Every structure is written in structure tokens, then in C-alpha cells.
TrEMBL record:
It comes from Caballeronia mineralivorans PML1(12). Keywords: Acyltransferase, Transferase. This is N-acetyltransferase domain-containing protein. Gene3D superfamilies: 3.40.630.30. The keyword Transferase applies. Transmembrane segments: none annotated.
Length: 140
């Protein structure tokens, strides 16, 4: 595959957010997905998030982070023209490799409830819904 996967840096932000905006199923958050929010995420989690470039064009991205106990994957997206070539799997493998260095028990991710294709993708890759927990949240 001629696609390069590398660490995401803040200079990638504009291209990355454009890919998110063009992708149904990606829930873009005003604070945490702003440029400042992504700058904080990258600073707190050096080297964990990745981007993929194909001939200078953004082909995909995956945000990875941890809180010292659990790892998180967010906004795993591959550009439509490059899907089905193993790119998401390669980006996720790279993220998991980075997270494994931090002695975390589990990695979590959220899937928007009506994103059936996204859910099928994760379950095919061995990720399972947690049926013993219900996620509770409130705004800060
Ligand atoms: C989901 C997504 C990231 C997959 O990217 P991709 O690069 O096409 O995935 P890969 O080529 O790495 O596929 C890896 C495996 O998953 C399978 N797969 C890919 N998409 C799938 C889907 N929608 N349903 C079931 N299996 C899927 C592939 O067949 C492949 O299987 P294999 O291991 O037997 O070869 C991409 O379709 C996308 O960006 N979707 C929109 C955003 C999204 O929904 N992201 C996830 C939500 S949290």
C-alpha cells in the first residue's frame, strides 16, 4: 500500500476536521473537536493519534488517548475512495501499539447508535458492546 501512516500533528487539523465533516456517523463536538481541543488532546497523548496520507492527500485519521486507566479510540475515519484496503485496520493497530505502552486494562470507543456500518466494522474486528455497563454523561 502506498499510503503513509504517521503521528497526527496539529498542522493536520484543518484536513482532518474536513474529513470528519464530510463523514456521516462522526459526531463532531464543539469544544473537544475544536483546534484548541485537539491541540490539548495531542499534547496530553503524544504520539498516539495517527493520520494516513496518500500522495499528499489525507486518507484517514484515528484519535487515540488514555486517562492512565483506560484507552480511548475516537473518530476513526477513512476517506471513501480508500476504504476496503486495510487502512483503518493499520491505523488502529498503530494506535493500539502505542496504547499498550501505557499499562492500560481496556480500550473503549463509542459508536453513534444508528451507525450500523461502523458497528459491523468494529464487531468484525473483535470489539464487543459492553452489556454489563450503561454509559452516563453530563456536560461540564
Ligand atoms: C469503518 C471504516 C473506518 C473502515 O475503514 P476501511 O479502511 O475500509 O477498513 P479496512 O479496510 O481496514 O477493513 C478492515 C476489516 O474490516 C472489514 N470492514 C470494513 N468495513 C466494514 C463494515 N462496514 N462492516 C463490516 N466489516 C467491515 C473489512 O472487510 C476488513 O475485513 P478483513 O479483516 O476480513 O479483511 C470506514 O468505512 C469509515 O471511515 N467509515 C465512516 C466512519 C465510521 O463509521 N467510523 C467508525 C465509527 S466509530
Amino acid at each position: 500500500m502506498g499510503v503513509e501512516i504517521r503521528e497526527m500533528v496539529l498542522a493536520d487539523y484543518e484536513a482532518v476536521v474536513a474529513l470528519w465533516r464530510s463523514t456521516p456517523g462522526v459526531d463532531i463536538r464543539p469544544v473537544t473537536d475544536s483546534q484548541d481541543g485537539i491541540e490539548r488532546l495531542l499534547a496530553r497523548n503524544p504520539g498516539l493519534s495517527v493520520v494516513a496520507f496518500d500522495d499528499g492527500n489525507l486518507a484517514g485519521c484515528a484519535l487515540a488517548s488514555h486517562d492512565g486507566r483506560r484507552g480511548f479510540l475516537q473518530h476513526v475515519v477513512v476517506a471513501p475512495a480508500l476504504r476496503g484496503q486495510g487502512l483503518a485496520r493499520a491505523m488502529i493497530d498503530r494506535c493500539l501499539e502505542g496504547l499498550r505502552e501505557h499499562q492500560l486494562g481496556w480500550v473503549h470507543l463509542d459508536v453513534v447508535v444508528d451507525n450500523e456500518a461502523g458497528m459491523a466494522f468494529w464487531q468484525k474486528a473483535g470489539w464487543q458492546p459492553v452489556d454489563t455497563l450503561t454509559r452516563l454523561s453530563r456536560a461540564l
